[in-house]
Amino acid sequence: MRKAGILNRHLSGALAELGHGHGVLVCDAGMPIPRGPRVVDLAFRAGVPSFAEVLEGLLDELVVEGATAATEIRAANPAAAALLDDRFPDLALVPHERLKALSADAHLVVRTGEARPYANVLLRCGVFF
What we know:
6-stranded mixed β-sheet, alpha/beta, 5 helices, 6 strands, 32% helix
């Protein structure tokens, strides 16, 4: 048994399969899940686990070279926007409909229990060297 890091075996295994350029959508409970990508659904109750908790855990494990979120996050969810701005100085913003279309090409979707709007980000995996 692991003693640190991500303990969820489904998520840990899915992360081990990621490579350079793969997309990982971290999303709230309301984001439509596209057909195709592997999905690890962590949602338990509204707000549990939160978008911030899951994102922080993933960033401890992944090399991320870029991130894209919905433009609407700025007005609708300032706390999530601030979190993303802090973690990703070069955060790309696109309309929410475009983010949904881009998520269809993600390799992995991690659904949180987040119940605040537009708490979604598409991460692009990098390499550690």
